[in-house]
Amino acid sequence: MKLHHLPIVLALCILATMFALALFAPYITHYKPEDIDLLGKFLPMSFEHLLGTDHLGRDNFARLIYGARISLSCVFLTLVLIVGVGGVVGSVAGFVGGRFDQILMRVCDLFFAMPTIVLSLFLVGLLGTGLTNIIIAIALTHWAWYARIVRSIVLSLKNKEYVLVSKMCGASGVENFKKNMLKPILAQCVIVATLDIGHVMLHIAGLSFLGLGVKSPTPEWGIMISDAKDFIFTYPELIYYPGAALFLCVMSFNIIGDYLRDKLDSGKVMENAAFKH
Fold first, then answer.
1. What is the pTM of this model?
2. What is the CATH number of the domain that holds 136?
3. Does residue 1 fall inside a structural domain?
4. How many folded domains does the chain comprise?
5. N or C: which end of the chain has fewer CB within 10 A?
């Protein structure tokens, strides 16, 4: 194995382990993440409790791997909404053009005008707290960037010779889009979304830390850090575990995103699409 492949291999191994732990959590540990045992609080690492227990006697390892389910599933659900909304808006704006395109892009400018975390807090204030509302709020604050990316790809391709020839041959707008534009759009969205996973994950964890998302005793990495902040000087390991899980996931997704950006460069994808025609 070449040395420059080592980071991507390590990132894939870390993520595979995280997904396996999350998927098979009920079979890996017999403890429930919400089980409270006040007589067994702050227990150290042992064979019975691999990562010890927290201030309520809950098993840290169980909460960590069950929390991975919520953290990872929420991130991917959020990104599906972001890419879906941004992709549709960007495609329509690029295809239709004219005044309609200008209106949609001015709407995008409104979302670009404020930092995403501030806008998310504002939307959560309007929608109310809770995991569902956090997902909606984050999706509403991030879709504009994807809309701009998709629009730029559509604009760069719609006047290409092979697209115009396909249109002259009787292909409908939908057929032309699916045949000539969908692949480079998906490739670029995959790259950006992979690089965005870490940001969205931290965003969700941060809002949960502030008490706006997942509520205790539900296991989630952000709420685990929030629960442990009062014991940072006496039992700092309670913060280390979810913090390390977040760090490893964000780092791994960023490494994979960089790798995909190099391998699935949008310019190369568009060139390959043009070559086939």
1. 0.83
2. 1.10.3720.10
3. no
4. 1
5. N
Per-residue pLDDT tens, the chain, 277 aa: give them: 565 678 899 999 999 999 999 999 999 999 999 989 889 999 999 999 999 999 999 999 999 999 999 889 999 999 999 999 999 999 888 888 888 889 988 988 888 888 888 888 888 888 888 888 889 999 988 899 899 989 988 888 877 776 666 666 666 666 767 777 778 888 888 888 888 898 899 888 888 888 887 777 888 899 999 999 989 999 999 999 999 999 999 999 999 988 888 876 644 444 443 333 3
d(CA 255, CA 244): 16
C-alpha to C-alpha distance for 153 and 90, rounded to whole angstroms: 9
Q: Which residue has the tokens 């001015």?
A: 106
* Structure tokens that stand for 276 in this block: 């086939």
Residue 215 lies in a domain: yes
- Does residue 78 sit within a domain? yes
**Which of 151, 141, 158 is closest to 185 using CA atoms?**
151
* Cβ density class 91-119: b for 16+ within 10 Å, e for less: bbbbbeeeeebeebbeebeebeeeebeeb
Cβ burial of 56 (10 Å; 0-12, 13-18, 19+) is middle
In angstroms, rounded to a whole number, what is the distance separating the alpha carbons of residues 11 and 17?
10
Its domain, for residue 63, covers 6-276
* Residue 51 domain-assigned (yes or no): yes
